[in-house]
Every structure is written in structure tokens, then in C-alpha cells.
Amino acid sequence: MFKRFSSESVSGQSAMKSSQQRAARSKIIAQMPGIEAYAEDFFPKKEKTIMVKCAGHLFILASSGGTPLFFQTRNGEYFPTLRTLHKYPFLLPSLRVDRGAIKHVINGADIMVPGLRSERAVIESEVEAGTPVAIYAESKEHAIAVGIARMSSAEMRINDKGIAVENLHYVSDGLWKCSELS
Amino acid sequence: MSAQPSSSTDVATPSTATELSPQEELPQKPERDPRYPLSVLYCPVCTFPPELHEYHSRTHFEKCKEWLRKNAPQHFPDLFPDECAARLEALRLAEEQGVSLPPTTSDQQDNNQPKVAVPIEQKTSGGKKKKTPAHIVLALGQRKGKKQVTIVYGLDLFGIKLKDAAKAAKRKFATGSSITISPDNRDVIEIQGSRQQDFAQLAHSEWGVPKDVIFIVNAQKKKVKAFP
């Protein structure tokens, strides 16, 4: 999704209205309940959050300094960016892939079932199909990708091939490189 | 953005929302864990967290090596055995005393060094290094009547954001200053009035542009050094 993303993909940006901001805030809290105590970090009262509109019905919520915090397509779920997730690792349910998968995942590949079923991989939380998940890696501390589950964790245990998680945002992709949208 | 249609979230979120609403009289502030936000170390060279460096290409890794040796040797026991041991020891001690590790010394050194703007190497699509001379050229342009403007070429080659530079000039000289596009299609800054010498000073002091790459176009249309 962000493979070819750059600051040129931005088609417009504006400060969010306070009502918009409230709606986004409550939706994010509903979606990731763990965030509630920290919501102030993302939506400070004094500053406006910036809504960055990009090609392909993509919206990025950025702090007033231009740091991307969350992204969303159309009116769907909010996903934290990886840098946000590194700071607040509890935001998303996590799946841990084995070592062999890492290099493909940080190149943008989707997460396949075998990468999650191997002995060294862990399905750390139960997920439903269609929910945002964080992808961690064996013996690594930080998340390496954010994606949307294509099957539930129960199905991941049963199937032995196919896409388990669609990779949306990974370390080294365009959004990662845009640590600040001016 | 409109409110979320409840049908699309069957992820247990609507239920929690409804459960919470009767308790609204006694609002419970969720506890903050002081550990968050975590501060995560990223390599300044390639932006990766140190632990993911082994998945880089070899050439890439070489560039980051020095920084890794100083800042995150614990992830590379094979490469830097001595530093790794020392670092792990320090981490263990820090944990025993219950304090977080102080920021690494090398960062502080960097802060003490004066800022120096380095010309950015431009690459063409073929991957070959393009040779544009990284110079800052200050020319004068005429406006209506006797009015003059200073045109600054080449600031972008030093990685200076034109927007910031224009703002700085506005503040410093209390004149109008803006980003425009020159006839040869380069982004330039236009400052009202004759500010060649002044801007040369500003570029040197504010962004650390070396003196010998700042040039002035004089009355004879010749490019001369701003700091002879």
C-alpha cells in the first residue's frame, strides 16, 4: 500500500475540525481500547491534528508537527503507523513470524500461513478476519509490519497455505521513510 | 468524516461502548503506564531499528556499522564482541539499579558539534551521481522602477528547506521573501531589496553553509565569492 508512497502522493492536507477530531478520536479509542489513557498524546487539546489526504482514498492523521500517527482507507479502520506502534506496542493484537519470513515481510510481502505455523512463530493473540494486526518477528523486539488479517487465528492454525495477513505498512516502505510530512 | 457505521465493526467494539455508557456518572480515568511511550532507537543513517539491520544489503550495512558499534552493539555479538559485552553489562547494571540507561555519549557529542550543511549528492535515475556544483548564488533582479530583489539559487542543494529559509529571511530582514520558480525551472527564494551580503552572512551563520561555496553576482554580471 505504501510501497511507492512519498510526499508527492499527498494531494492535500488540512487541520481537522474539532468535531472531526472528536469523531476520529472516539473511533480510534473504540477500535483500540488500550489507547484511551494515552489519547492525549495523539490528540492534544491545544493543537490541531492534521488530516493528510493522499491518492487512493487514503487518509493519514498526523500530529501538528507532521508526524504520521494513523492511517485509514476510505472510511475503514484506523491503523497506527509503525513508529506509533513502536512507542505503544499494545495497540494491536500481535502475530510473530519466524526468522525466514522477516526479509520478505520488510520487503512488503503478505504474511503467509506457513510463516505463522512454524515452530518458532507464535500466534500471540486471537484475531478475527478483517481486523488490524501487528506483525512481530522471532527474536526481534519491535514490530516489523502492520496488516489486516485475512483469516481468523483459528483458521491460521488449520490451514497450511495461503495469505494470513495482508501487509499494509512495513519497515522501509514509503510511509516509514516519510517520518515527517511537511 | 462521518461517524462509524456500527454494522462494519463486529469486533466487539460497539458492545464495550454500550456497556460503558451507564457508568458515565463516575468517570474512570484509565491509568497511564509511565513506561509508554517507549523511546525507540533508530539508526540515523537508514532509519531502521538496530535489530533489523541484518536484513539490509551488505553495502547498506557498512554505512551504518560505525553508528551501530557505538549505539547498539548488543544486537551484534559476532561483529563487535567487546562492545557487546560491555553494553550488556551496562544494561544489566542499569536494570539492577532501576534506572534507564542514559543516552549514549555519541549523541551528545553530535549535539555539541556546530551544524554544518553538507551538499546533498543528487542521483539521476540511472544511478550515476550527477554533478551539479553545490553553490549558493545570490543574484539581483529588477522590479518595477528602481526596486531590486535578491534571488537565491541553490539552497535546496544543501538540504535546507526553502520554506524555512524564506521565513528566516523575512524575520531577519523584515522584508518580503518568498519561494518562486526561476526561468530555468529551479526553486529559488526571492527577497525584497538588495540583501546579497546579508543573506550570505545568514546562510553561513544559520545553516553552516561553508563560506567558499557562497557566490554573489556583482554589477558586472560576474560571479564572485561572497567572502573574499
Shape-level CATH architecture of the largest domain in chain A: Roll
Helix run count of chain B = 6
Biggest β-sheet: strands ordered side by side in the sheet of chain A: 7-11-10-9-6-8
CATH topology of the largest domain in chain A: Sulfate adenylyltransferase
Weakly predicted, low-confidence segments of chain B: 1-27, 102-114, 123-130
Number of strands of chain A: 11
User: Uncertain spans of chain A, ≥5 residues at pLDDT below 50?
Assistant: none
Number of DSSP helices of chain A?
Answer: 7
Number of domains of chain A: 2
What's the alpha carbon Rg of chain B, rounded to whole Å? 27 Å
How would you describe this structure to a colleague?
The complex is a heterodimer of chains A (182) and B (228). Chain A has 182 residues and is α+β, with helices and mostly antiparallel strands. Chain A is built from 7 helices and 11 strands. Chain B is α+β, with helices and mostly antiparallel strands and 228 residues long. In chain B, a hairpin with a 5-residue loop joins strand 1 and strand 2. At the A-B interface, helix 1 and helix 3 of A face helix 1 of B. Chain B: Residues 1-21 have a biased composition (Polar residues). Chain B: One of its GO terms (biological process) is formation of translation preinitiation complex. Chain B: InterPro entries: DENR/SUI1_TIF, DENR_N, SUI1, SUI1_dom_sf. Chain B: It comes from Gracilariopsis chorda.
